Amino acid sequence: MGVLHLKINGDDLEVAAPGHWTLLEVLRYRLGLTGSKQGCDKGDCGACTVLLDGKPVLACLTLAATVQGRHVTTIEGLLPAHVAAGGKGADPVQDAFDRCGALQCGFCQSGMMLSARALLNRNPQPSDAEIKDALSGNLCRCTGYTQILQAVELAICEAAGRTPTPRSWERASCADSGAASASDSGERSA
Amino acid sequence: MSSKLPASPLEPRAQDGAPKKKKILVPKVENGHETMVEIEVDDVAGPEWGPREKLRLLNHEFVRVDAVDKVTGRARYTHDVRLAGMLYAKFVACPLPHAEVRVDLSAAKQVPGVVEARVVRDGEIRFVGQPVAVVAAKTREAAEDGARAIKLDLKPLPFAVTREQSLAANAPEVNRRGNASKPDERGDAAEVTAAFARCAAAIEATYSVPVQHHACLETHGAVVDVPSNDAATVYHSTQATFASAGEFKGPLKVSDVEVINEHMGGGFGSKFEAGVEGRVASELARDLKVPIHLMLSRKDEFLAAGNRSGCTATVKLGGTQDGKLVALSASVDRFGGLGGGSHAGLPYIYSVETSHRSMRSVYTHLDGNRAMRAPGHPQASFAMESALDELAYALGVDLVEIRKRNVGDVHAKQLERAAREIGWAEHPHKSKPDLSDAVVKVGIGFGLSQWGGGGHPECRVTVDIAPDGGVRATVGSQDLGTGVRTYVAAIVAEELGLPLGGVTARIGRTSYGPANASGGSVTTASLAPAVKHAAFNAKRSLLEALAKTLASAPDELVLDTQGVYDARSKRRLSWKDACATLPPAGISAVGEWQANLASNGVHGAQAAKVRVDTRTGEIQVVKMVCVQDCGLPLNRTGVRSQIFGGMIQALSYALFEERVIEPDLGLALNANFEDYKLAASREIPEMVAILDDDDTRGVIGMAEATIVPGHSAIANAIHNACGVRLRSMPLTCDKLLLGLAALKKG
Fold it and tell me: Which terminus of chain A faces fewer neighbouring Cβ atoms within 10 Å, N or C?
């Protein structure tokens, strides 16, 4: 068992852990940071996604010893990081996920939001295809992803001072007799 | 707590002293399967939801009250529970489908950190993944090392993991009463044969669906803590908090079990029981006197924690020239492994004049199926909707028209709406598939859904109003992720004129008061009326107390978003000031289920538009539409999330999901998220969810309906696009290319 020097959510930490432990094991079983979820333990589900120097990595496939001295941001650190950077309250991605109802059970959500945050860090105005690519490593079994994609779009639009494209259901009611399909009118839900 | 409260002033009483009773039918759900039972309820007017246009929160879109905990990582799931001195436990599973197993624990007990190693089950083991031993250790890693050190002495026995193996003449015995159950027959075969003679056309084909997994992101498991000889606390990822408390009492040998389930990572029907993981964790905690954390690994989860049964259905369907369905005969085999499997039966949803069907279970050496979102319905939908499309093409009838002709008015209206949204009027291939030489082609398909979703009286809700104005709603119900905590708070806030943030909802503990198991989409219709009743009683108690203080009468007091207005004195009190007049104990009121606030029976219509590339066989769903009724929608954001979630589970089922078992070795080949693919962001089409606001009934659960028809609509859309009928799911590009080649050959 050695001592690892880690920077987690802005704190310099010394953690005693076996050298072969993954970052996820250190987070969950040493530091009590259980917001990063253990969904598959082999890099398939994305629930353990954290940011390493602002880029998304799978904590379950990353040896803790290899990230010493680099900045690790977990879901617990997203709001404080936003505040430290001069923002108010939650990160815009967190806020958009809340407002769009982009969650059900919430187990995938930490990883999903950090993947979205990483995307916006490197590309503040991604296309729909780029959003879908950036989130494609994060599995969600509950929501059908639709409101997740809308949440990311909302965060992007608000950062740019634009109004998001109307959502499909803002035009569609059951009594509605209008025939225009969403794709015909250039609107889309996702 | 609540049992000590005085009876509500609004407890219904008939003139003669006893409440008048009436009999009503309510759904009873056991392990996700729904039957209707008659119960007696008080025959009195309870609270009403009121006119929809007057609702301030309900029937609107609002943010979940637990969203902040979930987006900041604070929400605690069973997997996240950490207790002092806790040991981590890990199962060792049988690697063979059928074997005589002996377990050697000696080496495991020598592994540093291992505290205990035990046999869970030995002797004859009947499926891959069945837990045979368990290790408890000081760290997760030591538990894994210990598990690896366990030696299994395996004597392979003959097995059957496929239908053919199970039904072969020399097949090994899977079930003592025979490898296939006695067929369950409905209808008169001779009448159906005669009816086919009257049909203008008939089609016959065999449709098959594979075994699907629930794939909850949080695996099954429990953390069990036995701090004394007579009480235990169990943290459990469960759909049935109350039922599971009872189950844990046995192995724990204590009289008082508190089950805690603050947040859980999905269930979808797979988490009704304590399971072997709950039993073993309890036995270890009881014997070792330390808390035990036993969560299944992802592989354990795939192998032994539930699945939706597969099936094959051979269907013959005939109709008149204008598309009226006249005759159906069907023969269905269900594949639920060691379990019976589930199937909703044929005909499904559509009325057919005369029908006969025979259905049986074929048993195999695989873990038994469990209830999964709308158990048996997606299987029935695939055969019925596919056969119906094939018949429509044979008759040359419009695919929407043939459906409307054989269903009731609500479904017909919803179909029309879905057809409009998907662009059916402009679509050129309404009664025959596109057989042109185009390379990339677009097709449209349809499917219908139905479900019960009614409620029943099991929940008791407490609403407390404190003198500082704080309001708390308390009930033991679990929230699978659907948003229970949020609508509990919203219903109370609506009744008391408060903002959503003015009410705290406490759920997810047995000590919070009884609630139903969440299966069969019954939670909303069971719980919401009891919450409304509790809030209504609390409001009445508050106004009665205020009337005394203000020397007014309860009927003269109006509670709204501005506080309380006294019509007698023309005085207004803010909410805070009104509550400040209460005695220190505040007000506590209890609510129970109210039959008039819930309804039963939902309908839905879905449409899918797909694009197929005839060179590569690539199938892309480009748009899906759902028109869904659900009585009163409590939170429209939450309802839409249920709709999208169900539709994408169906899309995933249609295109990707299939448990693959190697027939010669009997091994599961894709027990992980790498090889068992779930739909992800790149596969998400344009999604439209339309709530049927013509439905003015009380609250009804609708989540199961939404998964029923999507895969059927996608299969139909593929056929519509290119003339290839894929009758075996998943609908993959290799099957499509083979179909296209066969079509070319003629």
Answer: N
The single residue listed with the structure tokens 């790149």 is: B682
* Residue B1 banded pLDDT, cuts 50, 70, 90: very low
The verdict on B68 touching A (C-beta cutoff 8 Å) is: yes
Superfamily of domain A2-76: Beta-grasp domain (3.10.20.30)
- From the CB of residue B50, how many other CB atoms can be counted at a distance below 10 Å? 12
Q: Which CATH class is domain A90-184?
A: mainly alpha
CB-nearest partner of A174 from B214, B216, B691? B691
Query: Which residues of A are less than 8 Å from B648 in CB distance?
Result: 143-146
Written as one letter, the residue type at A154 is L
How much is the ipTM here?
0.93
Q: Write out residues in chain A with pLDDT < 50, as ranges.
A: 177-190
The CA–CA distances, whole Å, from A153 to A145, A160, B230 equal: 12, 11, 53
The answer to whether the beta carbons of residues A6 and A74 sit under 8 Å apart is: no
State both tokens at A132: 């879908």
Chain position carrying tokens 């004195």: B569
| DSSP letter, residue A166 | P
Which amino acid does the sequence have at B337?
Answer: G
Strand locations in B347-458 (E): 354-361, 440-451
Give the pLDDT of residue B169: 95
A42 close contact with B: CB closer than 8 A: yes
To which residue do tokens 């091994």 refer?
B667
| Best CA proximity match to B584, nearest among B545, B620, B528, B622 | B545
- In terms of Cα–Cα distance, which of B575, B586, B376, B384 is closest to B493? B575
Chain B residues in contact with A177 (beta carbon < 8 A): 420
Burial of B100 by CB count in 10 Å (0-12 exposed, 13-18 middle, 19+ buried)?
middle
Average the pLDDT over each of B32-36, B222-226, B589-593 and give the range with the smallest value: B32-36
Q: What is the pLDDT of residue B18?
A: 60
Contact A40 B672 (CB under 8 A): yes
What gap in Å lies between CA B724 and CA B718, rounded to an integer?
A: 7
End-to-end CA distance of chain A: 48
No. of helices (H) and no. of strands (E), chain A: 7, 5
CA distance B703 to chain A (A): 11
CATH numbers and ranges of domains, chain B:
21-58+455-595 (3.30.365.10), 78-157+220-295 (3.90.1170.50), 310-453+599-745 (3.30.365.10)
Contact between B672 and A126 under an 8 Å Cβ cutoff? The reply is no
Handedness of CA B167, B275, B377, B443 (dihedral sign): negative
Chain segment B525-574, per-residue pLDDT in tens = 999 999 999 999 999 999 999 999 999 999 999 999 999 999 999 999 99
* Chain B contact present for A92, CB below 8 A: no
Q: Are B257 and B229 in contact (CB under 8 A)?
A: no
Q: Residue B211 corresponds to which amino acid? A: V
A67 φ, ψ (degrees, to nearest 5): -110, 15
What one-letter code names the amino acid at A177? S
Mean pLDDT of chain B: 94
Strands (E), B562-648: 563-566, 571-573, 587-592, 602-613, 619-628
Instruction: Kindly compute the dihedral angle of the four CA atoms of residues B700, B704, B705, B708, in this order, to the nearest 10 degrees.
Output: -170
Which of A131-135, B38-42, B43-47, B509-513 shows the lowest per-residue confidence on average (mean pLDDT)? B43-47
Facing B265 at nearest CB: one of A21, A105, A146 = A105
- pLDDT-based confidence at residue B4 (cuts at 50, 70, 90): very low
CB of B22 closer than 8 Å to CB of B43: yes
pLDDT (0 to 100) of residue B17: 52
pLDDT digit string (tens) for B701-734?
A: 999 999 999 999 999 999 999 999 999 999 999 9
CATH fold match for the domains A2-76 and A90-184: no
What are the structural domain ranges in chain A?
2-76, 90-184
